[in-house]
Each structure stands twice: as structure tokens, then as C-alpha cells.
Amino acid sequence: MRTTNIIIRRRLTSLFLLATAALVILIGRLAWIQFIRADELQQKALEVRMRDIPVEARRGNIYDRNGRLLVTSVSAESLYTIPYLVKDPRRVAEQLAPLLDMKVEHLYQILTRKSCYEWVARKLEPGIVEKIKQLKLPGLFFVEESVRHYVFGSLAPHVLGFTGVDNQGLMGIEKTFDRELQGTPGRIVVEQDATGREVPGALHKYISPRQGNSLVLTLDETIQQFVERELDRVVAKYNPKLAVIIVMDPRTGEILAMGNRPSFDSKNWMTAPQGVWDRNPAIWYNYEPGSTFKIITTAAAVSEGVVKPDDQFFDPGYVKVADRYIRCWADGGHGSQTFEQVVMNSCNPGFVEVGLRLGKERFYSYIKNFGFGDVTGIDLPGEATGIVISEKKATNLNLATMAIGQSIAVTPIQLLTATCAVANGGLLLRPHLVKEIRDPSGKVIKTFQPEVVRRVLDREKARQVVDLLQAVVMKGTGRNAFIDGYRVAGKTGTAQVVGEGGGYVSGKYVASFTGFAPADNPRVAALVMVAEPQGGIYYGSQVAAPVFREVVRDTLHYLQVPETPGLEKPKDPFVYFEQPRVKVRVPNVVNYPLEMAQNILREAGLSFVVRGEGAIVQEQTPKAGAEVLSGTSVVLDLQPPGGKSREGTVTVPNLTGLTITEVAALLAGMDLRLEAVGIGQAASQNPRPGEKVPRGTTVRVEFKPGSEPSQAPPATARRVREFVERP
Predict the structure, then answer these.
(1) Tens digits of per-residue pLDDT, 488-507?
(2) Collapsing DSSP states into helix, strand and coil, what is residue 41?
(3) Residues 73, 78, 214, 291: which is the catalytic one?
(4) Which CATH architecture has domain 54-217?
(5) CA gap 173, 217 in Å, rounded
(6) What is the architecture, at CATH level 2, of domain 583-704?
(7) For the chain, does the N or the C end have fewer beta carbons within 10 angstroms?
(8) Contact predicate 188/200, CB 8 Å
(9) pTM of the full predicted structure?
(10) Where do the DSSP E strands lie in 253-378?
């Protein structure tokens, strides 16, 4: 009995302890919930019965540098529903569908969803809003939103950008400064039970949004209009694939205007092809700059002291680097000239020599310091870096071609930024588009000052480069960019288009001009780039330089920059005539005397490059009969002096059209004897041209009075020029 009582007491004690422990745990859990997690659980409870309908804020305005309104937001009402408050969804759907241009069934599904709210239609036209309000339908509510309004729809759309349906910035300045422009969203607070049903005395509260900040840009609306006007003219005249004009203040890096073609309307951007609005060619398009890049070669050479303006150069028409012949655009070359004339004439052999003098290490340091191969940091999305061959992999041939603007790809904004560094005395500035940020009351909360990236040139060296570029406009290839009353400095460029496979595309070019004015105190710098102009005219001096002149002249007058009275003008305007490039058949000039071979090729509209020494053409490339475009270079390989071969034989030359004296002198120099028949010019011969014969062989030549060369091809398209620039 005693044992039984002990067991019972122990069991009761254990049960009591277990109950006490459970009670302690429950009290602790209650305290944890009540004091520790109270806020968290209360918030979850609110979330179950409270729903927020976001209300977008009105985006801030965008102004030009003079306070002219470019972009604003206008009010537009949007329709939403609280489904459980809609008493007769079917009838409401049937009444609303015709007004909203929606299907009844789709609208009915929206009105019957188990949710606290649903958008029915966003940003409606005022007339439709009024008609819906007149119906007085329960469960439907309007909230004020905004629609972005671009005062000038087609003015600088790639710069300003556009917004989406939820007023978020999708492109351009709208995207870059989206956080500053978008403001603080408001809310519509709705109360319901867990199943979405109406709660008696439910809360329905509207919390208004806060408008976003406004931007003041560096753009000038008037200068931008000048740019848009000239771009329209370029499209009408040349129908190019792309066209870009950028205007910058070289003292500050501020972008005064930036335009592209093709373009679009910011208000209706969705109707334009995606390829037009999703990229800004001014900061994205990579292209070989051609002769405009010679500004960098000149700056590097002058800065490093490897050349002086009066240093002498000789241009025979081509220069050989490694196994490649780089020719000058002028048939026969420019001959003896100073470096100033090399720059004025845009002479390729001269610049190749300068680039090789610099050497890889020094030349690459200037390429990098001027910002090529890296983004400029302009405040727009989607900027490209350009393409620069790795310094480790670069060869002398790469160095030579980069010196003339080939084998390197740049963007328009990179090239203009580098040009501004020369113009302002050697400082590379970060280009920018925003001057100020203002709050909704108009108070300035942030300003953007000029940002110096680095010094790239000594001020005195930069002045020397400016003088050379001014000579280009006064006496050289840039004469069409001259502006009455202002000293202008700049450089033209004509470059071939690189295809997807890596080679140049026949007949496709990029014409460009970059420069600044006044040269002695630059206020305006501009770049004009026209990719793949149509109509047979494609030189930068013809296509881009006149556009630069029109834009910069109007800009200088608009900014009231004083003219220089009595300023000397170029003696002659730039004149260049050329027939469109056509296909021609390469004539045979093998075994012809060199001078005659050159004349034949000129008559055919072809250029030539001579390799080796001697008087007779031994081989030609391309071969006779090949079809090429007029202007193509034919490589002429000459026989060694005397024409003697390793086997002790000589190749009989083509003597057709030569006089007896010329034939006798030529054969004598080749250890061949002449048997002359008749007088006049050589009409036939035996052995025939090209045969190999032992030295001392007699060649029988028949001469006839007034005989014309039997193998000379007829003249084809002949180019006539006063002056022309080639990359």
C-alpha cells in the first residue's frame, strides 16, 4: 500500500512538473509573439486585409540650357476597379467594352477576379474619361497619372529618350537620370477581408505622389534645330545609311547639340523600327575614321618632337611597309613637301613615315591618352568603346595604317572629344549633357562642372597642331569648311567601310569632318559623319565639310561670336569632279616599257604601284582581263636592269608604238640586236613579245608611218580633278 502511494505521488509530481513546463513554454511563446514579433505580425495582418494600388509620380521636366521646355508630363486619368464592389460585372463589361475598345469577355474576367484591385485601362483620352464618368458605374474609380509630352517630338530623340507605360525611363537621358526624374510614387490604400470581400467601414485612402526633379541640359534648342535641318538636307541629297552631327563647347565639354539619321518621334517611338531607336549612332557606331584620325598622329608627332612643320618629306606616290604598298591618293604622289604640306594635302606616305618615327610605344600612349579604346563617360546609355588593336600584337604595318586612320575603329563622340582636347590647349574633358538638377520648386540641388580627365598635350604644342589644322582649311583639303569672318581649323576624312568578314566593302565609304572655330579662341567644335552616302560622291571634303560649315557658321552667329575683319579667304574653292566608279577590264601591260604601261593604265582609269627596278614590266597584278573598279591599283613588277635571266636568256619586250631610236636603245640595253624594216613606229616584230631568247638574238621590227599601238586599249572613264582627298 505504501509502495502504491509513493508511485502515485511521483506520477502526480511528474504531471505537475510537465504542466508547469508547458505553461512556462506557452507564457514564453505568448511573450515572444506579443512583445518580440508584434510589429512583424501586425504588418502581416495588415497586408492580409490592406492592399496598395501604386500611383506613379509626375516625372520632372527637362529644359535646354536657356530654360526652354523640351519635355514635360501632362495629366491623364487611368481607370481601375475594386472587383468586389462591382455589383453587376456582366452589365458593366457590356457598357464599358465599346468605350475602351476591348472585348466584353476579357473585361468581364478583369471585373470578376478575386483581388483587391485591377487596372482596367491606363492613361485614357479625356473624351473617353468623360463618357465613363457619366455612366456612374459602381466599383470603378479614376486616378490621375501622367503622360510624357515631348514639345518637339523629333528634336534630339536619341538624346532625350522616352518612357514606358509605367513612366519609367527606357532610353537616353530619361533612362540615365530615371531615379532623379521619376519622383516618389503615391498609393491608393484599400481594405478588405482575407477572401477579398468588402469590410464594413472599409478604408479607402489616396496618398498623393511627389513630383520628380527636373533637369537642365547643356543642349541648346536653337543649335539643335540647326543640326536637325542639316541632317534632313544630308538625307535628301545623299540618302546615307547613317548620319551624325555633334556640336560641343571645347572649353567645357558641354554637348550643345547631337543629332542622328535615321531618327524617330519620341512621342510615337513604338511605331519606329527597333534598330532606329534602341541605339544612338553618335556614341555607338564604330567606324574607321580615315584621315580625321591624322589629327591624333599630328598631335603625337609634334608633342614628341619627331617632326617640325618645315621638315621635308618626299612622296613618290606610295610607301612600302612590310609586304604592303600604301599609296597616296594623288597619282604619282606629291613629291617634295614640308610636313605642313603633308597635313594640308592629307598625304598618306608622309603620315606613315611620321607614325613609324613615333614608334609603337609612344604612338599607343597618345591613342590611349586621347581616350580611344575606352568610353568617354558621356551621360547616355549604350556607349561603345571603339576597337584598338592590342599594343602587344601590333606590327609596323598596323602602326603605319593607324597613322592614316585605318586598322582602328572609333565612335563619333570619341573623335570629337579628342578634337576638343587639341582645340582647348591640351585638356581631355568628359563630354556631358546635364548642367543642373532642380527640385519641383525650381531650387538647384546639384550642378555639373567641367570634368578634366587628363592633360594630353602641352599648351604650346597644342597651338602648333591648331596652326597646322588651320592650314588644312585655308589651303588644303578642308577648304569647303571655311567660314567667312572666322578662322577655322579641322580635318577631312574619307574611309572605306569594313565588312562583317573583316575586309573592305567595295563602293562603301564614310565621309567625315571634325573641326572647331574660331581657331585662335575656340567656342564651337563639331563633327559631321555620313556613312555610306549614295550618288557617287563620298569624299569628306565634299559631303561632310560643307555641312560643318553651315552648322558652325549659324552657331557662331547665334552665339554672337565676333568676326575677324579682313580675314584672308582660301584662294580657290575646293573643286573635284569624278565619274562614278565603274567596272573596267585590266589591260595587258606585261613586256611594255614602264612609261607606256603607266599611260595605258591611266587611260583605263586605273592607278599603279611600281615594284623593282628596270624599264620593262615583267608581271602585273591583277592579271590582264580581270574586272575591277576604276581607280584600282595595278602592281607592276619590273625586270632587273638589262632584262637578263638566270638561264642567260632575255625576254623580248613589246616594242609596238616605239620609234626606231627608242627600239634601238632598248634592245641594246638588253644585249639584243635590231633588224629594222621601214620607218615610223614599230608595228610588228619577230620574235614575238614575251618570248625568251639567247642574248645577242636579232629582233626583226617592222616600222610604219603613223602606226598606232596595236595592243593599246581604248581610253575608258578618265578622272578629271583639281584636288581630291583619299584616306
Answers:
(1) 999 999 998 887 766 777 77
(2) helix
(3) 291
(4) Alpha-Beta Complex (3.90)
(5) 9
(6) 2-Layer Sandwich (3.30)
(7) N
(8) no
(9) 0.72
(10) 254-261, 312-315, 318-321, 324-327, 335-338
